[in-house]
């Protein structure tokens, strides 16, 4: 087959519009275009050097010549490159030139092979585009590795044989040793009677090496050629023909030129893992349908890699290689088949299905019967099926369904009891022992099941109707088997003459029921415990951190509003806390924090840290020292970590001193504009011991509002924290008009800036202007009336 690069790279090649087929078509088009450009660029460089032209002038000259001669740019480029690639030694008679069509084709093939992505692609390009038109039907490339030859790529040969010749030791067959030792080709003409060695200028010599060669048929022509790269032998190539061949000068030149390119192809990565070709050969040897699937590297879904002849016939043909998804190859069964492949891959056990699609008829070419799916490595699976039911397989399935069922017939008029063969195994008895009648089972059952057997027999004999019961049969070795007995009475007129029925082993079902019951009881207990823990955590959290606190007036003209919003998801009680506490020194402690995790452990850790921070604040130490102490408390509590910000406000100086342990920055609203305060870059609590936290100092003025919050207020699942902080600044500036802390915190929670369903704490502290009404002032008919103090004075 001849590969016409010019045609495959033309603008008229249609491009697939969607899916994997589009990607594959685009990939082929780009590779063909790359090969075409490579050839044209080579010719352009040659013309530029020979004619002293610039690159652009040389390209224009090339296209003008192509138009004038009626040749394509690729064909003319091939002629130019071939012209300079010929031997130029004036002392040697120039060889007879190859026919122009052959020379152009070989040059295009060489350029396309050099542009191949891997060795396998390059080998197939060399065989199909160059060697096959010369009569060859196979190509092998080996790479030299530590004195041995390792197969790097092959085309036109069986995969099983390729696996057998993966490695050739130093004691290689004679033609290989000759090619490697003398760096000269070995030409073996086959049944024509000679094997010529060297360059073919002397008489042919007989090849007497009896060592077999890979891929060769008796009497077939072969050529073994060294592959040289940068002055060194890097491998060996073997070209095979289907029969005898006469190696003329032109044929040797053409093959040798292509093998110069094959040496460059060896620089590409190897094409495929060994083992997959063997599976292909095994499937091709089967008489019933079989297919090899692999996981697509782009979609992660199984796609068809190979189908044997029987499978292609059963499927009515297979689609092109670029679009072999399961949905395309198996349009009516792809869903069920994909699930079988997934289970086989995860369980590492073969999967079976008697009929795909299950429970319904499939349009032509019909359903897949007796389907088996086997894992074949990490990325592959083998699918085997039948187009018509196999009686042997169907019979085996029927027997397997009835292995736990046995029939019996008892006679009450002096006849014998008759068991089916399965009954003896069910009762743990040999075929030499006498079958037990239903009336004699009492000695073989568990003593607690005696009443159940009595009720069964009474129904059969007294009521003369069918009945069933589950009895525990005690086997001779002492184990117990649960057996369901279903029986019908045999009647002659009004007399019961015997029983007929079945025994069914239901031990597995009974064990499953018991296990499910125990599991259900355990899950119920776990659920009750989880609910109890949740309620305790919720009550503890609400007692320490209420969802809303009334507006509070604090010393120094501070007005405070705080809110806590619990997590949206059930059982996601979190570890957020806030605290606003006047201290004996006259200063005011303002803090928020967030302990990692959810649930009772998180809440109890939060309570411990909040109470510890409260107690430490009474020492009068600055926030940096308080935070260092709280870090040591966190390390010695329960191994959790937490973020926190701790601030002390001095009403006399109006100064706010604060420290941050990995927490989000404070937000200051002043004169209707909001901005974030740059926090210290200190680590979170509980990370490392003996850590010293920095302090920041911020002067607050009358009318300022300070906002402390946790990450649940601003975090989004698919957005960065920077974007969330920007939204917070914009919203705070908009809501701060009027100066009410309550309006600010309620408005921020109502904007739903965060969407992680995490719990959230928000504290707003405002410095009042002198003479500004306090939160305890109430308005009645537009008149401000001071409400009494909490103590009634």
UniProtKB/TrEMBL annotation:
GO terms for molecular function: phosphatase activity; RNA binding. The keyword Transport does not apply. PROSITE patterns: ANTAR, PAC. Transmembrane segments: none annotated. Residues 467-518 form the PAC domain. Pfam families: ANTAR, SpoIIE. InterPro entries: ANTAR, Bact_Sigma-Reg, PAS-assoc_C, PAS-like_dom_sf, PPM-type-like_dom_sf, PPM-type_phosphatase-like_dom, WH-like_DNA-bd_sf. Keywords: Hydrolase. The keyword Hydrolase applies. Residues 20-81 form the ANTAR domain. Residues 198-221 are annotated as: Disordered. PANTHER family: STAGE II SPORULATION PROTEIN E, STAGE II SPORULATION PROTEIN E-RELATED. This is Magnesium or manganese-dependent protein phosphatase. The lineage of its organism: Bacteria, Bacillati, Actinomycetota, Actinomycetes, Kitasatosporales.
